């Protein structure tokens, strides 16, 4: 390695001074020398980029020091492998982590700049779909805050989750060009590019020691280009790394072809390679899309494993790997890492199979995030074998050895062996990635108590019987730095005034707020903050979407991905039901609790029913919002493009949090935690982490409704007939009839017929079965909201009793139960 001689180069790297003058100097230097403009000629974007780079300077010294320490002390690291990291905006978090908020604001004000304008300039990196990706972002924030060495590995998608627009009420996807105005938070390292192979065939050969070996003869390859991001801990001087990979062609440009005039062909290899990291989770309903997705998965884990070995196993002794890393598999997307590590250890490092398998089993742990069978990935062996022939061979051998163990443990139970096989034979021969992860992983965890129990009892039942000690639960959590301190400065300020500092990194301390639920002054202050948060939201929605909202309504919010199991349609039935009762005179206006309903949801581009549901929500909103009869009591708004940035303004304003999935379908949910921590009350089913929220906040501060999971299973078994609910419940009938009548589609009865029929004759997620109970629970919400004092008391108690849902606690659980890593001293 390079040995510097200059004394300055030998001294530790230092941060710029923590002062307004120091900050101004750094900022202007960035503007002048990096952006190459003077302040007076600079654009808002120049200023934003320079501000971001300035803040980066304050993190760099600690980052370099951290990395050095991890290498030197050979500390065991968490390698968090995730196809998604839904980071949200970086500037606010970096200013908070470095304790530079005030200094930066003053410094910019002295330059004549309002920092709020620059904050608004940042485009969030949308490198995730929803809960799973946001969870990964919360986890790396917590690990940095706890000083636990971690490297996050993922994909630098050129286009993240699509930007949702509505055209005549229908979702239209636009590309998310998050990189187009510059990306000041990343550090590209082309010199550390890694080659990743695909295709071809395998062959056997005998090595110099007479050992028979296999080698992979790939057909093509691409380069993985790393981009580093700093992951700062909260005001603790710790900075971890997130390393995202971008695909590039090995030979990007063919000059002779270009010179011959075939310009398109000259860059064909480049276009082909770059497609791998072009978009987040491309449509997988076509065979091409599926193949691309497998390419993405292999691409990023192959880069990451190579990178970890090169970077941290400096003496080349790969047998020490389990002492240096635990790779956490965030869902099945990175599971191809298992055969990849085996390939590296056996084919390249020349370990014998058993030694390699012993190492591999210690290096992985697997988190499952779902119970829906369709979300458990399987790869046809035809595809996997064509793209990764050596990996398929390795998977077959892992499976053979595993099934031999199973057969030995359960002689005469061939059915069990078949059920547990990593290879499924029907409807086509394929690899069950969740089973592979379970066989290889040292631990398998679900993400909430109920989910982990259902994993053990149902989805992975045979495995949990065979390896009971392998299974554990870690309930999800969210980072209070972003979702309280940054998103809700008002409430955070009140908590700090009341409890002093320290609660942001020790969230169980929120319990100390409990007595203040009885303190009228505290409740008053709390309510005023909620009102101010609503005003802030309404201003934003006015500016962003042109909607004007009344300040005094109960704010009822349902924000999450659009999926049938989450049951946005049930929420909609409730809204239409109230509306129907008003317009038919069944209830008087003065009996209605004025409510504003907010939806935020993206539907997967190829998910037809989900997109139709969006259209129905927008159509109902249009009719309800323009009906003078209900104008004082009902509003329905659906701001387009719900993302982390919007969540940060929406959640702190909400009164009511809608968590209404069919019991047994939502693995955990994390939005539910964010709402409770910001003082919204939950209306919810006994599903996912709702169960734990309800237990902690108490039944009287939570509106429970709906079938419990065993009841769902029972109803399913005996045969569910949704139209029977329609026929026996006049209000449900009237509600569905109103939708079917064309009332929300300009009289055209055909528009929503497929949605209505789907509910009446299929209704996979039992919205009709839960409708009545849901409407009754909503009536309890109205009654509770009528007593503002009691409501405020409940809201305060929701905050006080939700400290458990910090992602710091989740990380402690992972460390104790799975990783066994230590914080850096
Ligand atoms: O749907 C789940 C949520 O319930 C959960 O809170 C979140 C984080 O654990 O993960 C979501 N998820 C599940 N995202 N993708 C999947 C299926 O692979």
UniProtKB/TrEMBL annotation:
Domain of life per record: Bacteria
InterPro entries: Glycg_phsphrylas, Glyco_trans_35, Pyridoxal_P_attach_site
PROSITE patterns: PHOSPHORYLASE
Classification via Gene3D superfamilies: Glycogen Phosphorylase B
Keywords for this protein: Carbohydrate metabolism, Glycosyltransferase, Pyridoxal phosphate, Transferase
Family per similarity comment: Belongs to the glycogen phosphorylase family.
Name of the protein described by the UniProt record: Alpha-1,4 glucan phosphorylase
Native organism: Gryllotalpicola koreensis
Lineage of origin: Bacteria, Bacillati, Actinomycetota, Actinomycetes, Micrococcales
